[in-house]
Amino acid sequence: MTNATDEIPYFPAIAPAVFTDGAATAALFRPVLADLAEAVEVPDAALPAPTPCASFTVAGLRDHVLGWLQH
To answer: What totals of helices (H) and strands (E) does the chain contain, helices first?
Structure first.
């Protein structure tokens, strides 16, 4: 038997109310996106390199970040 906390949520999920305010959302995401730019703007030769997260190469991390942004 599984409980609700074990289930993976379906997307699109209902966003927190703060995300209905464009200015508030931009203020929250601006520093995050600035930090993530380093993971996205890399030369092709670096894509197979490892990252601090053993689950991701640089290419995998970039795909993960870009996929999240599309969501």
So the answer is: 2, 0
